[in-house]
Amino acid sequence: MAEARNTYKSGADENGHFGLFGGRYVAETLMPLILEVERAYNACRDDPKFAAALKHLNTHYAGRPSALYLAERLTAHLGGAKIYFKRDELNHTGSHKINNCLGQILVAMRMGKKRIIAETGAGQHGVATATVCARFGLQCVIYMGAKDIERQKPNVFRMRLLGAEVRPVDKGTATLKDAMNEALRDWVANVRDTYYLIGTAAGPHPYPTMVRDFQSVIGDEVRVQLKDAEGRLPDSLVAAVGGGSNAIGLFHPFLDDAEVKMYGVEAAGHGISTGEHAASITGGSPGVLHGNRTYLLQDEGGQIKDAHSISAGLDYPGIGPEHAWLHFQGRVNYVSATDKEALDAFQLCSKLEGILPALEPSHALAYVMRTAPKLPQNHLMVMNMCGRGDKDVFTVAEALGAKL
Amino acid sequence: MTKTAPKVVANTDNAGDRIAARFALLKKKKRPGLVTFVTANDPTPEVFREILEGLPSVGADLIEIGIPFSDPMADGPSIQLSSQRSLKHKTKVADVLASVKAFRETEIDTPIILMGYYNPIYHYGVQEFAEAAAAAGVDGVIVVDLPPEESAELTVHLAANNMHMIFLTAPTSSDQRLPTILKSASGFVYYVAITGITGTASADEAAVKDAVTRLKRHTDLPIVVGFGIKTPEQARAISAHCDAAVVGSAIVDIIAKGIGKDGAVDRQLSVKVLEFVKSLATGVHGAWP
């Protein structure tokens, strides 16, 4: 079927495709389960009681809506566009990850699953998953690369305090992609009682759609909040993109508003030309991994390459399939920021606004710093502050050569 | 099973079809077959070729060659490590096809099936892959992470080049699910005997017997059972209930043991591997009463 030209919001199709991208590329053992997750999610989506339960948790447990904040000193410093932060770092557990975990845990319980598994890179999704499992009394196993466990010790301890079992993955490159492989292996072996709570808008259908829907609360709130503050739509939206869940959550409600420009900021690591980066669209090509077709970092033989970013949350060699499609369609602009630019943005924001941003949104902020000065003062720019930087103080200290 | 679902009928014209010819021969000999799995270029391109060339004479009836992948999500530790050893030699799809071509110079009857994950094939180009694989003498392809819903873009080219797309079925494949898989299946049907990854749990004989009986209600294609078969005794027990049994991780484990701490490969490694395959064949070939 031809792409519908009058909307960017019709995807995914019934087989989970966003144009060329997405789909369900999993072993046959998992197919019946993936189809069951899809049926369960569709039933939830059509059920007003589900929506009410999720809204209640979002309000009373996660603390939504998160604020939309005019960053006055940053705006004055940059001297151009008027900059708003969507404060998703103020959510319970410190990032946007809780939005998705609360939604999926309700789906998992509706399916009668008692055991939850998840992968985590920086540990934010692991902490959010362990949190909702504690809240609902479910068994929780988190797979985490051995290298990431070493660089994110506080989050590992947080997960254990929340009652989760953290299993180190020393296979492959011992990072996020290997943690995801290991979670899939666990799921294949435990299909009957286990639910895989994927943390980003990627993986086999229905995950990219489901995660997007649960994260779209971000953009839905921005639409209302900016209307209240300014009486109109934003001129541009900016968000960091690893797998891309916070970005799709901000962008999706605005996709059909042609006047709203969108910028997804990938992690350029040491620079795209060095090959040491995590920018799947800017520096990758289409391929199939972890259940979906999307842009990937891969070598000339189709083997997956290691990603590099100072931000563990962006350190993944792929991107959600809807982003791949939005890039292909030209609806969203995918740009990048280096480790160094992100570190500069981290420091500037801390000093000017009294907000320590996580290293992930620091990439988005780097793009804001680069472009806002060139824009007129009536340009409304909304950046998703999707996580707080407390978890990153050790990494930042090391990068700046400071002793703690 | 829905009574109206059409049974998949195997192609009875075996001309140019090594897989069909091989199962016809096994039927004539009244015995099940042994399918062996090794990853291409594991542990080295040279030793792999010695193993590959030796397999038909020690009783491998069909040969699966693994295309290595950096992220083998359905495989256990044995085959993961084997993939990594292969990738140390920078093994590409073209190298795998070259080794099949070399094999075909001396052996024309034993079917070769390539098994792997979709990305290396997709990256090579599906049409180019199908043409090059057929030219090299490949008979069938198993792509672990390519379910029937996503497979059309590859199967159309495999069919055009007279190759089989072989699909996996699993303990989780319900009677409602099976027709979706089997309508695209050709060559044979691979039954994954355990709910899990390769080389971990042991296949349960009684469960396999029931599963094969169920599959036979849906298809006339040969049923080949793999995952969780490690010893000659297990291979014999499982193959008693199906058309052929696959052994992979147990063979790959012998390769792993033949590599010293310094990375040097045991000079007798291919001999040891082939001796083990011979013991598997002895078990399997006597399995039918």
Commentary on this structure:
The complex is a heterodimer of chains A (404) and B (289). Chain A is α/β, with parallel strands linked by helices and 404 residues long. Chain A has 16 helices and 14 strands. In chain A, the strands form three sheets. A six-stranded mixed beta sheet of chain A has the order 3-4-14-9-10-13, with helices on both faces. Chain A has a four-stranded antiparallel beta sheet with strand order 1-2-12-11. The radius of gyration of chain A is 19 Å and the shape is globular. With 289 residues, chain B is an alpha/beta fold. Chain B has a single domain, classed as Aldolase class I (TIM Barrel, Alpha-Beta Barrel), CATH 3.20.20.70. Chain B has twelve helices and nine strands. Chain B has a nine-stranded parallel beta sheet. In chain B, helix 7 (152-160) links the parallel strand 4 (140-143) and strand 5 (164-165). In chain B, helix 3 packs across helix 11 (249-257), helix 4 runs parallel beside helix 6 (126-136) and helix 6 packs parallel to helix 7 (152-160). The longest helix of chain B has 17 residues, at 269-285. The radius of gyration of chain B is 18 Å and the shape is globular. The relative contact order of chain B is 0.18. Chain A binds chain B through residues 15, 23-33, 171-172, 177-178, 181, 184-185, 188-189, 191-192, 287-291, 293, 296, 298, 300-304, and chain B through 68-74, 76-77, 80, 84, 87, 90-93, 117-124, 144-147, 149-150, 167-174, 177, 181, 192, 195-197, 200-201.
Helix/strand layout:
The complex is a heterodimer of chains A (404) and B (289).
Chain A: E1 17-18, E2 21-25, H1 31-45, H2 48-62, E3 68-70, H3 72-78, E4 82-86, H4 97-110, E5 115-120, H5 124-136, E6 139-145, H6 146-151, H7 153-161, E7 165-169, H8 176-189, E8 194-196, H9 207-215, H10 217-230, E9 236-240, H11 245-251, E10 261-269, H12 280-283, E11 285-289, E12 291-296, H13 321-329, E13 333-338, H14 339-353, H15 359-371, E14 380-384, H16 393-400
Parallel strand pairs in A: 4-14, 5-6, 5-8, 6-7, 9-10, 9-14, 10-13
Antiparallel strand pairs in A: 1-2, 2-12, 3-4, 11-12
Chain B: H1 18-29, E1 33-39, H2 45-54, E2 62-66, H3 77-88, H4 93-104, E3 112-116, H5 118-124, H6 126-136, E4 140-143, H7 152-160, E5 164-165, E6 168-169, H8 178-182, E7 189-192, H9 205-218, E8 223-226, H10 232-239, E9 244-247, H11 249-257, H12 269-285
Parallel strand pairs in B: 1-2, 1-9, 2-3, 3-4, 4-5, 6-7, 7-8, 8-9
Helix pairs in contact in B: 2-12, 3-11, 4-6, 6-7, 10-12
